[in-house]
Each structure stands twice: as C-alpha cells, then as structure tokens.
C-alpha cells in the first residue's frame, strides 16, 4: 500500500504535474476574472441606465406640470382682465336700471295733457322720490350740512355772513352736495358764519 500512496500524484507530484497545476491555476483566475469583470460592468450600466431613465421620467413629469401650471396661470390672468373690462363696461348697469323708472315717470309727465297744476306737482314730487331712491340705491347721498362745522373737503363756501351761530359753521346750503360711499361727488355750496 505504501507503494500506491507514494505513486499517487497528489502526494509526490512530478514536474509535469506541477507545471500542469500552475497552468490550470493561472488560467482559472483569468477565466473567472473576466466573468466577474463582465458581470460588474454590466450591473453598473444597468443601474446607471435605470437612474437615467428615472431622472428623465421625472424631468418629463415636471415639465408637464410646469406647462399645465403656466397655462392655468395664463387662463386666470386672462379671465381677470376680462372681468375688469366687464366691470368697467357694465359698472353703471345697476344704477341705470334704478334710473329707468324715473325716466318713465318723466316721459309720462310730458305726455300728460292735463292742465291741473296740483296733479303735475304731485307727479313731479313722486318722480323726485323715485330719483332720490335710485340715487340711494347707487349709494349716492345728499349732503345737508346746515349747522355743521365748515369742512373744505365736503363744502364750498360762497360767502361769510354774520349769524347767531358759532363762527365757521354752515349757515345755509345754496346747492346740495353729494357723496358716493364717503367720496365727494360734488361739494355743497354754502354760506358760513363770520367770526364775531
């Protein structure tokens, strides 16, 4: 048995066996290395391509979202401009609707052929009430500042007159003034009490 063991190639290698083993060892890593090297670079490009595809998809989604937002903003701006134009064009519409009954009453008065002065006066008074109501609906209010302190922003003094009132107060109103929502349309023409 000893003889068999000594002749075994693993225990007593011959120079030919050793050369064959070295060649096999040299070839094995070379064969394995290209397989690993090929596998690693293929994984890296796949990961890079996947990341690139994901980034491109995200860019496309963001571009689409940007374009939608831009279009929506443009639509809102355009609608806003149209609303402002309509507001300027039709701002007086409600006021004009309130004045139409006054116009109808005046036309009816002109068409009336009666000579009864009392009826004409009554019709004019009713028409004046209609007009006053229409103005109030349009937030136009008359100024009647008798007895108030003179305010140059709301009153226009015509003259100073001697009066029993405190100095610099409104004595009489010669022509009514009007305001619309606290903005003066026309100042009241007034006389003012002179200093004593």
TrEMBL record:
Transmembrane spans: none
Cross-referenced InterPro entries: GrpE, GrpE_CC, GrpE_head
Record localization: Cytoplasm
Chain spans, region Disordered: 1-54
Biased composition (Polar residues): 1-14
UniProtKB keywords: Chaperone, Cytoplasm, Stress response
Pfam families: GrpE
Gene3D superfamilies in the cross-refs: 3.90.20.20, Head domain of nucleotide exchange factor GrpE (2.30.22.10)
Domain of life where this protein originates: Bacteria
CDD domains: GrpE
Bias (Low complexity) ranges: 24-54
Subunit: Homodimer.
Family note: Belongs to the GrpE family.
NCBIfam families, per the entry: PRK14139.1, PRK14140.1, PRK14150.1
HAMAP family membership: GrpE
Task of the protein: Participates actively in the response to hyperosmotic and heat shock by preventing the aggregation of stress-denatured proteins, in association with DnaK and GrpE. It is the nucleotide exchange factor for DnaK and may function as a thermosensor. Unfolded proteins bind initially to DnaJ; upon interaction with the DnaJ-bound protein, DnaK hydrolyzes its bound ATP, resulting in the formation of a stable complex. GrpE releases ADP from DnaK; ATP binding to DnaK triggers the release of the substrate protein, thus completing the reaction cycle.
The name this protein goes by in its record: Protein GrpE
Species of the source: Candidatus Burkholderia pumila
Gene: grpE
């Amino acid at each position: 048995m000893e003889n068999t063991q000594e002749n075994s190639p693993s225990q007593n290698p011959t120079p030919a066996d050793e050369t064959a083993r070295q060649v096999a060892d040299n070839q094995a890593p070379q064969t394995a290395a290209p397989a690993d090297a090929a596998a690693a670079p293929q994984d890296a490009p796949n990961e890079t391509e996947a990341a690139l595809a994901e980034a491109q998809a995200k860019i496309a989604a963001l571009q689409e979202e940007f374009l939608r937002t831009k279009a929506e903003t443009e639509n809102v701006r355009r609608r806003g401009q149209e609303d402002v134009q309509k507001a300027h064009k039709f701002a007086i519409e409600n006021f004009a609707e309130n004045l139409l009954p006054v116009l109808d009453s005046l036309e009816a008065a002109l068409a009336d052929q009666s000579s009864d002065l009392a009826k004409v006066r009554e019709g004019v008074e009713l028409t004046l009430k209609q007009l006053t109501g229409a103005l109030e609906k349009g937030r136009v209010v008359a100024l009647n500042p008798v007895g108030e302190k003179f305010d140059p922003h709301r009153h226009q003094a015509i003259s100073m007159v001697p009066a029993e009132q405190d100095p610099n107060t409104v004595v009489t109103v010669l022509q009514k003034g009007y305001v619309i929502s606290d903005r003066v349309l026309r100042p009241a023409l007034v006389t003012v009490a002179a200093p004593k």
